[in-house]
Amino acid sequence: MSTDDQDSKTEDASERKLAQARQKGDTWSSREAGHLMAFLGLLVLCLLVLPIYGPGFVLALSSVFSLAPQMPLETSEDLSQIMEDFALLVAGFLLPALGVLFVFALLSMVMSGPFLVSPARLKPKLSKFNPASGLKRMFSAQNLTEFTKNILRVTLLGAASFLAMKMVLDSLLPGVLLAPQGAIALLGDTAVKVLMTAALILIPFVAFDIFWKRFQWLKKQKMTKQDQKDEMKDTDGDPHIRAKRQELRRRALRRPHMQTVPEATLIITNPTHFAVALRYERGVDAAPVCLAKGTDLQALRIRDIALDHDVPVIESPPLARALYAGAEEEDLIPEEHWAAVAELVGYVLDLRRRIHRKLPEGSHHVTD
């Protein structure tokens, strides 16, 4: 993809495009989350599973071996009983350990990104065997970021492990004798410290990696204005989308237009003389739909209903006047206003995701 093509992609991807990308197996994923969950799983094993089940397992295992010469082995049933008892003993220790690892493996899958099973990912791509493409990927910004991050992570983890082992060696001064139980306790305490330090080191790496991978993926999925128009035309031809849109229109026509205001995505005002209630539902509306509009007292009424139902009200005088003059209720707004309204809709959708950004110049978000 050329730089010019990428620079022209200034619009956020629609839900339809994101869904199509996921169907092709194209989504973001973070390997760092798997590393963190592995360390946390081992940490839980050392803190909970081993202290609770370890001593009993070692004691039972030692008794099995100490009593082995006295066990009867006259028949096959005797051997089967011994093997069954031994299997139960091992299972009593392994099942809790495997259960902990299984839980953290599931958490790793959840944190690593959306889980997808796509046949499209199984198809071979000839571009992957192209040396020129391989070199381009090798020296891409994404791979350089990964390389730098991996070097930094390995360096910090290595330094933490070295310091922990140095503490152990310093505690074993010449002439100090440790009983086996004391040595095991010392090693266990050291393992807990190393794993806990490693987990703390990895937390910022995981947070950065999840943010960076998702940011890069969303940037890759961005659309040009022409892409948005083409998608809107394609969406108009979808019978399911068309049927849902018609149902929304029939439902709105059965009620007074003021009752549709709470369903609006945003209200555009001027600030009190004009008010236009717009709805935009991704994947359903090809463009914003005018639900209701009014002037003077009706405009104030639309604004009050919107504020009562937490519908964002945005003052944009020139746009409000233009929409009032050109938009018909229960119909798409005129195409010449799509770009201006799209910026305001994007602002509102970001607010729902708790992402705050500036409104276009000349617009103001009314809060009361």
TrEMBL record:
The keyword DNA-binding does not apply. It comes from the Bacteria. The chain crosses the membrane at residues 39-66, 86-117, 154-179, 191-212. InterPro entries: T3SS_substrate_exporter (IPR006135), T3SS_substrate_exporter_C (IPR029025). Keywords: Cell projection, Cilium, Flagellum, Membrane, Transmembrane, Transmembrane helix. GO terms for cellular component: plasma membrane. Residues 1-25 are annotated as: Disordered. GO terms for biological process: protein secretion. Residues 1-18 have a biased composition (Basic and acidic residues). The keyword Membrane applies. Belongs to the type III secretion exporter family. This is Flagellar biosynthesis protein FlhB. It comes from Falsigemmobacter faecalis.
